[in-house]
Each structure stands twice: as C-alpha cells, then as structure tokens.
Amino acid sequence: MDIQSLRGMPDLFPEDLEKWHILEKTLSKVFHSCGTKEIRTPLLESTELFNRSVGNSSDIVNKELYSFLDRNDKSISLRPEGSASVIRAIIQKKQEHEKHKLWYQGPMFRYERPQKGRFRQFHQAGVEYLGYEEGLSEYELISMVIQLNQQLGIKKYKIKINHLGDQDTKENFCNALKLFLEPHLDTLHEKDVARLESNPLRILDSKEESTQNLLATAPRFQDFLSESPKTFLTNIVQHFTDQCDIAVDSSLVRGLDYYTGLVFEVVSEDLGAQDAFLGGGRYDHLSKELGGKSMEAIGFAIGLERIIDLMQIQPLQNVQKVAFITVGEQDQQKTYKIAHALREANLSVTLDAFLSSATLKSQLKRANKNEHHFAIIIGEEERELEKYLWKDLSAHGDQELLHFEALIDKYKNL
Ligand code: HAM
User: Fold this and answer.
1) Average pLDDT, consecutive stretches of 10 residues, N- to C-terminus, the chain (414 residues)
2) Alpha-carbon torsion 232, 238, 244, 247, what sign?
3) In Å, how far are 18, 49, 387 from 318, measured between CA atoms?
C-alpha cells in the first residue's frame, strides 16, 4: 500500500512551524489593528458555489478543483480559495445589508502541476471588506498590504494594479479583441483559442510567446477604459509611490472570473517563476450572482508558503532548554513540580528528565550534547539538604545550591 504523502501536499515540521507561528501572529496582529474580525468557513463546499463564483472559464474550476460525490451523490469540492465561501456565509446569514471587515486563514486546494512555490495544498490568509463601495477601501487595503510587508521585513516587492472597468468596458473590449484575433487563429496558442470563447480577457496575461507577439498590435484594454477608472489608478499610484514600488499593469486581469473594478497583485523577483505572493481586487457582483442581495466587496489573499520565503524575521530562540538530572529514582517526580511552577510563572521552558540509571557525569554530557542551556541536578548531597544544584551549561558554568522557591525565582529573573 502506498502511504506516501500526496504530490504537492507537503508536511510542515516543528522546525518549519517556528517561522509559520511568527507569520500567523504578525498577520492577525495587523488584521486586528485594522479593525477586521476573523471568520472561519468549512473546507468543503458544494461544487456549484465555485462554478458560480470563481467561474467556469477559470483554470481553477476547469481543471484544478478537487471535486467528488459525497455519500448522497452530491458534488462537493475542497475550497480552492476563500472569498466565495465568505460571501456564501454572509448571504446564508442574511447580512448582505451590513458592513463587514473580515479575515480568514487556512488551507486551500488546487490540482495544479506542483513546482517551486506551487502546491496542491497551500495556505492563504485573506481579508474581505464587504459593503464598502469603490473609493477609500482600495486605499485602505493597499496600505494594509504595505504595513504587512513592513512588519514581516519584506522590502523587495512590487505592487501591480489595474482596473477592469464596468460590464460595458469589458464587453466592448472583448468584442474588439475577438474581431482582431479571429483571422489569426492558426498563430494563436491553442490554450488561448479556447479562452477566446470562454474569457477573452484572460488572453492578455497569456504566457505564450506566439500570443504575446500577436497582442503587440491588438486593441489595448486601457483604450477602452473610461477616464474615471484611469484617474482612480493614477491617483492610487501617486498616493503610494513614496512608500513602495507601485505601477499600473494593463495586462493584469487575474485568474478568477468574479472581479469587477480594481485588481492588484504583489510580486517579488526573489520568488522565481511563481512570483505573486498576494492577489486581490473588487468583486461587487458576486453576492447577487450567488443569489444574495447586492453587496459591494473587495479583498485580497496572501499565499503563505510564498510570503514565508521572503520573510526576513528569524525565529526567536527564547525557549530555555533545561536538563533535569537525578541519581535516585525517588527524585524524578520532582521534575513535574518544577515544570509546573515554571509554567505557572509563564516561563518558556522545556524540561527534559534523563534516566537516572546513567551516572551524573554521563547525564551532564548528554545535556551538553543536546544543547541544553541549564541543568538542575539532585545528587545524594542535594537530596539530604532538600536543595537543587542549578548549573549554567554555557561557557560561564556558574552554579548555585538553591531551595525550591529560590530556584523558581532564579528562572524568573534570568
Ligand atoms: P489568487 O491570486 O488565486 O487569489 O491567490 C492568492 C495567492 O495565493 C496567490 O498570489 C499565491 O500567492 C497563492 N497561491 C495561489 N495558488 C497557489 C498554489 N497552488 N500554491 C501556492 N500558493 C498559491 C485568490 O485566491 C482570491 N480569492 C483573492 C481575493 C480575495 N480576491 C478578493 N478577495
């Protein structure tokens, strides 16, 4: 039986998770400081939810959904992203008329071809502002992105923004693009020929060289945008330009069908081919498309596996490793008493008790080898005196004979 982990679904070990914990703490601190509240939605949803939100023309729904029939023959899917579930939850609670600032975090699933920075189970942390019309919330979210990067020590990144206009802009542009490309179907990459029918806008961010060559002389999306979204983009760039590298990228269309206004992506050249570690945008029509009342929405999600590679913060080494060394079995249970008192005092201490059948000297040797910071020793003499020998295992080698209370105080004051 093959019990290897599935491709693209990595394990996270204690040494990995130290950095994850710092990331998760920083994210929730920044989200809370911006007044957002946490929401948790299930990992499984009806497949219909993603068909109607992320969209039938997107790669995510077309070929990457983990879908299967449950015991009742209903098609269900592991969530590939978080926004659709958040909107579903709000509609189900009949709260579309209220304003919400929400954040979430957790595993997402996409059946993609695994490579560096691209997994089949990966983690996102996302923010969704619901009930906020176009205007200030765009500024607030971009400023939150800058704050997050600052707090995580990420300096080398670029924010790309674009505006997808309204329904008319999209339609007029797509018609013009179709007219232009139809005589060139033999040169257009076959993937993009399919997109011409399902979602022509996506052809703009095609990675295929033959398509990109054709696009050089094709109608340009920005020429179809009205003045107001263009000014909106220019103003955003002007506002943030002294805080970060930010620019309009008119080929940025994003891979999910639900976007309507501003879209943005944050990339870093330090990541290699999968260079986007954050993506988002406005999606004002999704609530209605899912059967709810009209509700404006804008948000973003961070790819945690990618952002963690960019983080400049090293895990804190503040946990003291203490070796508890005894020669008599009757002293062993004192470990728990000490561990309990130290934890009650909120100290980060790991207490390892060694087998007392070994000699004191060999136990000490083992403590040194395992990089313990301190040792607490109870030999014959200490037992008689009802004291503990506290020993610093660093180069200083200080030691003191202490009563229980003094020993605990010693740690509190380290
Ligand atoms: P997305 O661009 O599909 O947007 O994903 C956001 C981020 O998740 C990406 O920038 C990337 O860092 C990470 N990501 C995506 N797929 C993978 C993968 N296979 N392996 C590793 N990381 C990955 C969304 O999901 C939207 N829901 C964002 C949003 C929220 N828009 C509005 N609100």
Assistant:
1) 91 93 94 96 97 86 93 97 98 98 98 96 98 96 96 96 90 92 89 85 87 91 93 97 96 88 97 95 96 98 97 69 84 81 76 74 85 88 91 86 91 78
2) positive
3) 12, 45, 27
- Ligand 1: which residue has its CA nearest to atom 31? 280
Q: Which helix (H) or strand (E) holds 175?
A: helix 167-181
Residue 344 Cα, ligand 1 centroid: separation in angstroms?
41
| Pocket probe mutation, ligand 1, options 158, 258, 283, 306, max atoms within 8 Å of Cβ | 306
Q: Which residues pair with 216 in a beta bridge?
A: none
In ligand 1, the atom with minimum distance to the C-alpha of 254 is 2
Distance CA 360, CA 356 (A): 8
User: Which ranges of 77-135 does DSSP label H, i.e. alpha helix?
Assistant: 83-92
- CA-CA distance, 162 to 172, in Å (whole number)? 17
| Residue 394 amino acid letter | S
Distance CA 90, CA 280 (A): 19
Q: Comparing C-alpha atoms, which of 267, 202, 224, 225 is closest to residue 55?
A: 202
Instruction: Take residue 336 and report the two structure tokens written for it.
Output: 């728990």
Q: Is 283 within 8 Å of 83 (Cβ atoms)?
A: yes
Report how far Cα 201 is from the mean position of its chain's Cα atoms. 27
d(CA 162, CA 173): 15
Nearest CA to ligand 1 atom 13: 303
Cα 164 to averaged position of ligand 1 atoms, centre (Å) = 18
pTM, rounded to two decimals? 0.85
Q: For ligand 1, pick from 124, 252, 286 the residue to mutate: most ligand atoms within 8 Å of CB.
A: 124
- Ligand 1 atom closest to Cα of residue 276: 10
Scanning the structure block, which residue is given the tokens 């579903």? 88
253 CA → ligand 1 middle, Å: 13
- Measured by CA distance, the residue closest to atom 20 of ligand 1 is 118
Question: Which residue from 299, 235, 238 is spatially nearest to 264, judged by alpha carbons?
Answer: 299
**H-run or E-run covering 321:** strand 320-326
The CA 256 to ligand 1 mean position distance, Å, reads: 10
The atom number, within ligand 1, closest to the CA of 117 reads 21
